[in-house]
Write a structure and sequence with these properties.
Layout: H1 2-20, H2 29-34, E1 41-55, E2 64-81, E3 84-96, E4 107-118, E5 126-133, E6 155-163, E7 169-179, E8 187-188, E9 193-200, E10 208-223, E11 229-245, E12 249-262, E13 265-279, E14 288-296, E15 306-307, E16 332-343, E17 347-357, E18 365-366, E19 371-373, E20 383-395, E21 400-411, H3 413-418, E22 424-434
Parallel strand pairs: 13-15
Antiparallel strand pairs: 1-2, 1-22, 2-3, 3-4, 4-5, 5-6, 6-7, 7-8, 7-9, 9-10, 10-11, 11-12, 12-13, 13-14, 14-16, 16-17, 17-20, 18-19, 20-21, 21-22
């Protein structure tokens, strides 16, 4: 871990001068090839390398690791007519020095996206997109692609939409999340489906953007509170409202409600996100100061046949509750704030802090993949802890971008009682090159 921290400082010092230089004329290997091809055929790609590590996994002593994540994407884009678009993309995600190497950190050569698009999602009045693809709804708090992951999420899906006058639009889709596999081709799970209606009204009122949606999720073979295997039948209506206010203020509100059943259990959960920001345009670097509150319901009684723990569905949760991604949107109250600024020569900097508390003391603390800790009696308290993050990004020469940062978690009352209470540290440095 000390070696990684030294490397982090070295890379920042070594690459910031390059970032501060004026960007050269964009160049990539694909552009060199594409200029000799017909306009209906294009190749592309991306190479991302991230050195990262951690200390204090599970908030325990001796749990540390440092490893290198590499992700290569190669794509082909065929546009035979103005209304038809064929896209294919292979992805190779590898983790060097991390064992076991398995999804989502490692997923060797596989199809990441393969789809046909009739019309254009952004420009055509009517469009259709079918195949393996990324899906993002609103601010990714309900569905997203998790780009920070080494092998990020895609769906086998059919989507169709219609654009109305004034920029209003409606989209209908049916999808099944793709399960990354290390020993075979990736495939979706039969019966694990999500269907939805997503709408957007960007000019409903001056400066306001309203995005209502309704999702229906089904999944087989899930245990209910009694421990019986059952099927999930879940409905999630919600909306996102964002806009600008006088005096350089901006705001976002997003709320969802989950109802349905898991066998004989009833689903009754909800989520809320409230954010306000203020950009100080008269200050140097025009910093934006922001604060937000996030609530994701928990289950106050794990045996009453009512599932109160919020299900984040397919949200892209990276940096939603801290950059280290050690807590997820279940049974959580999060007060969050920070300052972000755009420095000269394409350098960006963000400082942010989170204060976490359990929504229900009788429910668990969750990560994106598992239960972190639980106090069935509720005696461990509700204050989980705090996370402080410092993140920088650099737009370097041509198609090269860089970034580095560190996340530091200070355990609170709950983690000190329910776990050994070790501090958690997550440093990283990342470079992305458009091929």
């Amino acid at each position: 871990m000390r070696t990684l921290l030294r490397l982090l400082v070295f890379f920042c010092v070594a690459t910031l001068p390059a970032a501060a230089q004026k960007a050269a004329e964009p160049f990539s290997p694909a552009s060199l090839v594409n200029k000799h091809l017909p306009t209906w055929l294009r190749f592309g790609g991306e190479q991302r390398t991230r050195l990262e590590g951690y200390s204090g996994l599970g908030y325990r002593d001796g749990q540390h690791d440092t490893y290198l994540l590499n992700r290569t994407r190669l794509s082909i884009n065929i546009i035979p007519t103005k209304w038809a678009h064929f896209y294919g993309e292979m992805q190779d995600a590898r983790a060097t020095g991390k064992r076991p190497g398995q999804p989502p950190t490692e997923n060797l050569w596989d199809f990441h996206q393969v789809f046909v698009e009739l019309g254009s999602i952004d420009k055509s009045r009517v469009w259709l997109k079918a195949g393996r693809q990324e899906i993002v709804i609103a601010d990714s708090r309900i569905m997203g692609a998790v780009q920070w992951s080494n092998a990020n999420r895609t769906f086998d899906a059919v989507r169709a939409g219609y654009h109305f006058a004034g920029g209003n639009r409606i989209e209908l889709f049916t999808a099944s999340v793709v399960v990354n596999a290390s020993d075979t081709w990736d495939h979706h799970q039969q019966g694990n489906n999500i269907h939805g209606i997503y709408t957007e009204f960007p000019k409903l009122l001056p400066g306001l953007n309203l995005q209502p949606y309704l999702l229906w999720r089904t999944q087989p073979n899930v245990r209910n509170e009694a421990g019986r295997i059952a099927d999930v039948n879940e409905f999630t209506p919600g909306f996102r409202l964002a806009g600008n206010l006088p005096h350089s203020l901006d705001f976002v509100v997003e709320m969802t409600r989950e109802t349905g059943t898991i066998g004989s259990d009833r689903i009754r959960s909800w989520m809320g996100h409230w954010e306000v920001g203020h950009t100080r345009k008269q200050w140097m670097f025009s910093p934006r100061i922001w604060a937000e509150y996030n609530y994701h319901s928990g289950d106050s009684n794990p045996t009453d046949g009512v599932r109160g723990t919020y299900d984040p569905l397919y949200a892209a949760l990276h940096d939603k509750f801290g950059f280290a991604d050690q807590v997820a949107g279940r049974n959580l109250r999060d007060i969050r704030g920070g300052v972000e600024a755009k420095l000269p020569h394409g350098i960006g900097a963000v400082i942010e802090i989170n204060d976490w508390r359990l929504a229900s003391r009788y429910d668990a603390l969750y990560s994106s993949t598992a239960v972190v800790a639980r106090s069935p009696s509720g005696t461990a308290g509700t204050h989980v802890g705090n996370e402080v993050d410092l993140i920088t990004t650099w737009k370097m020469r041509g198609p090269l971008q860089g970034g580095a940062g560190i996340g530091y978690i200070i355990p609170g009352e709950f983690l000190k009682h329910a776990t050994p209470g070790k501090h958690y540290i997550y440093p990283f440095v990342v470079f992305t090159y458009k091929l």
